[in-house]
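Collaborator request log, item 7. Partner lab (contact: R.S.) asked for a structural prediction of FGD2 protein to inform their binding assays.
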Amino acid sequence: IQEPEEKKIALELLETEQAYVSRLHLLDQVFYTELMKEAKNGKTVPEEVVKMIFSNISSIYQFHAKFFLPELQKRMEDWSCNPRIGDVIQKLAPFLKMYGEYVKNFDKAVELITFWSEKSPPFQELIADIQKRKVCANLTLQHHMLEPVQRIPRYELLLKDYVRKLPPESPDRDDAEKALEMIFMVAKHSNAAIAEMERLQNLWAVYQRLGLEDDIVDPSNELIKEGPIQKISTRNNSTSEKYLFLFNNMLLYCVPKVIQVGAEFQVHLRIDVDGMKVRELNDTQFPHTFLVSGKQRTLELQAR
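Returned to partner:
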């Protein structure tokens, strides 16, 4: 007899979980443990660096190995008399918030591995040595570290599929739908954490280019667009190179600095978006020109 579709998906969840736990074991019990041991002996890199690279991988490993995987195994053994996994996944979901920490740290971790591999040959050798082992399957540490980042989206896909294939009268329907909703929220939460972190990093980089002027540095601003622009001077019919930063609340009209010490730009003018108007001009001598008028003043600009 053909296995029901939903059971196949539940089995796939179990099998991928087993493979995932061995990947976590490799990260936590092999890479982390051995790199930490060498760091303690003072042979490779500071202990702090190893901790920063692996973030909270130990908690993630313990949770999956000691709790989630055994619970899933129990469920699949009892499938014939109790075909359900929704309740187990509901227990899992709140703990997945732990991933926020790991995922947010991921880019930093990869940078640290690269930086210290160049700086400390013994550190690089130890990683290379572990990577040669059979358990690593010819893949790099960075590659293995990507796995937890991809795990939550994988749960989401499998569970979506599972709910879709459940017969309407299945005893697992309510639980599975609720579980899917919970996983969906966690996935959104970890994506939002990454997006917010990227936004703040980009914003900070822009503020540095502007010389960190006090009245401009505000974490709630959003940069919408930036780029070079020509300022048209009607007095002597010439243009000069300027630079614009458009935020959700203000337009910064800047001059590129010739000597770039610290900042790249000098802010010459700031026009509030509130009450600002933009109008295209049909100027035969200067094509692609437009007029920006705001409370502070009016500018005639030419785009590329």
